[in-house]
Amino acid sequence: MFRCKNCLLLGALLLLLIAAIGGQAETVPCKLKDAQYGKVCVCTADYCDYLENPTLSQDDEFALISSSKQGLRFELNKGSFGAQEKYTINDYEEPAAEMTASNGTILSRMVDQALASIFSQPVTPTSSITRSVTLKVDRSKRYQRMEGFGGSFTGAVSYLLENYKEQDIQDHLYKSFYAAKGLGFNLMRVAMGGCDFDLEAWSYNEQPENETILTGMEKLDDRDVIRVEQIKRLKAVSGVENLRIKGAAWSAPPWMKTNNRWTGFGRLKREYYQTWADYHLKWVELMENNGLPIWAISTGNEPTNGILFMVFVKFMSMGWTPQTQAVWVDDNLGPTIRNSKYKDLVIFSNDDQRYTSPLWFKQMNRTRPGSLKYIDGVSLHWYWDEIFGSSFVQDTNEFMANKIQIISESCIGDKPWQKAAPLLGSWERAEKVARSFLSHLQDGFHGWIDWNIILNEAGGPNYVNNTVDAPVIANTTSYTEFYKQPMFYIMGHFSKLVPEGSVHIEAVASNVNLDCVAFMRPDEKIVAVLFNSGRADLDISVVDTVRGNLKVNVPAKSIHTLFYN
Ligand SMILES: *[C@@H]1O[C@H](CO)[C@@H](O)[C@H](O)[C@H]1NC(C)=O
Ligand SMILES: *[C@@H]1O[C@H](CO)[C@@H](O)[C@H](O)[C@H]1NC(C)=O
Ligand SMILES: *[C@@H]1O[C@H](CO)[C@@H](O)[C@H](O)[C@H]1NC(C)=O
Ligand SMILES: *[C@@H]1O[C@H](CO)[C@@H](O)[C@H](O)[C@H]1NC(C)=O
Ligand SMILES: *[C@@H]1O[C@H](CO)[C@@H](O)[C@H](O)[C@H]1NC(C)=O
Questions:
Q1: Which residue's alpha carbon is at the smallest distance from atom 14 of ligand 5?
Q2: According to the UniProt entry, where is the signal peptide (predicted)?
Q3: Residue 424 CA: which ligand 5 atom is closest?
Q4: Which residues contact 119 (CB under 8 A, 6 or more apart)?
Q5: What is the pLDDT of residues 44-81, one digit of tens each?
C-alpha cells in the first residue's frame, strides 16, 4: 500500500534534506514576542534566529545590520557607496494583517480601526523631525588591536543548560553566542571552582585540609565534569575558531584563609602563598588534560571585596591589598607559571572596579617593582562606571601601556536603585550596554567579557540571591524556550563582524546625535558601529577617506553595524 499521505511526507522530508544540504536557511529571522518591558526573541529546540554574516561582492558595496527599540533585530540591508540616493532603514512595524487573516471578525474590526486612524490623522505627521550628522572614517589612523568579545560560563549557566533536556535548544544557546551566524564570540570567563552564580560556594581541594601538595586536584569536580562537557559541546557545534578561556578564582578553600570562611574579612594565609600559586597551575593543567586549553587567568576576582566591602558582599571572596598581591605575584604566582609548561599563559590583574585602577598597579609597583612584569593585562568590572568617569581608564591606559585591557565582568541590576532581576525586553538597559561598549572601545580597550550568558526569570540562580539581568533569559517553567534580550543584539552589533585581530580606527561624528566606533578587520574590511540613542530619526552621511560617501536614514532608538571594503 502506498498512501498519498506518505508520499507527501516523503516529499517534504526530501525538500528539507535538500535545503539542509544546500546550506541555505542559515539566516533565520527573530521570532519577536512582546514582554513586559519591550520585545524579546524567542528560541525553542526547533527555532532560533541567526544572521549569516554578509559578504561583499563589489568594491563599493556595503551591508548594514540594524536593530531598534521598536523591533528590528539584526535586519540586513545592502547598498553601494557613491549612490545618489539616500538609503532609508524602515523601522519595524507590527504585522497586523498576517495575524488576522484567518479570522474574518477580527480582520474587519482591524480594518475599521485602521480606517478610523487614517482619517483621524493629520495629513502630515507632526512627530517626525529628522536630525543629521556626518561621520568621518579614516582607516589610516589606527589604535588598539582587538582580542575579542565573550560571555561567562558560570555554575548557574551550567545548571540552567543541564535543565534544558533537549540537546537542540542547548545547541541553539551555544551557537547564538559563539557561532559566526550568532554573535561570533571568542572569549569566555569561567570561575576556578565556584562563584556567587552557583548553587553553593565551592572550590577545588576543600579536602584534604592543610596539605600543600593539593591531592584534591587530581580530577575534575563533578560540577566541572558537566561544565567542561558543555563547553566542549559549545566549541563543537558553534565552530568557534579560537575560543580563549580566562579563569578566575573567587576564593581559596577556607582552610587556606585567615578567617577559615568563604566570605567576610579574609585573606590568604602567608604559609599558603605558594600552595595557592600551585592551585592555579594545577587548575590550568586539569582543564587542559580534560580537553579545555586555558588562555588566561586573573589574580583573583574582586580582591577588595574581602578587605573593604565584606559588609555588602555575601558571596565567595578573598581579600588582597595591592601590596600583598604584589608579593604573591612576584614570589609565587609569576615564577610558578613562567617556569612551567604554561609559561605563555596570560595573567590579568585587578579583575575589580575601575576606581581601584591604576592605583592598584602603582601600589603593586611600589611594593615590588618586579611584580608588574608578570602581569600581561588589566581586567576591569564596569559596575561603578557611571560614578567613576573614564579618567580612571585613561590613566590606567597610560600607566599600563602595552598591556591588554579588557572588561571581564558586566551586567545590569546590581545597584540598589535598579531592579535586581531581568527586565524582559528592556531597550533602556541595552542602551546602557551600548554606551559602555562605545566608551571603553573608544578609550582603548581590547575586549569585553560579559557576565552570565543565560539566567533564569529571577536573574539567578545565585546562592546568595545576588540576582541581575542577562542577555538571554531562560523559561524555567517549561525549559522549552529561552528569550534573547535587546542587550544580546546590542553586544552582537560590536562583536559579530569584529573578529580577533581587528584594529580600532578613527571615526569622528560631527555632533552628539551619533555615537560611533570603527574597526579595520584583518581582511582589511571596515566595520563601524552606529548608535542613534535619540528620539528622532537620523540622516547619517558616512565619509570614508578611501571608499567615498554614503547617506542613510536610520530610525529613532536604533543601532547599526556598517560593513564595507
Ligand atoms: C475568531 O473570532 C471569533 C469571534 O470573535 C472568536 O471567538 C475566536 O476566538 C477568534 N479566533 C481566533 C483564532 O482568534
Ligand atoms: C588545619 O589547620 C587548622 C589551623 O591550624 C586547624 O584548626 C585544623 O584542625 C586543621 N585541620 C585538620 C584536618 O588537620
Ligand atoms: C615602577 O617603579 C620603578 C621604580 O621602582 C619605576 O622606575 C618604574 O617606572 C615604575 N613602573 C611604572 C610602569 O611606572
Ligand atoms: C534567597 O531567597 C530565597 C527565596 O526568597 C530565600 O528562601 C533564601 O533564604 C534566600 N537566600 C539568601 C542567602 O538570602
Ligand atoms: C514560560 O512558559 C510558560 C509555559 O509555557 C508560560 O506560561 C510563561 O508565560 C513563560 N514565561 C515567560 C516569561 O514568557
A1: 475
A2: 1-25
A3: 13
A4: none
A5: 999 999 999 999 999 999 999 999 999 999 999 999 99
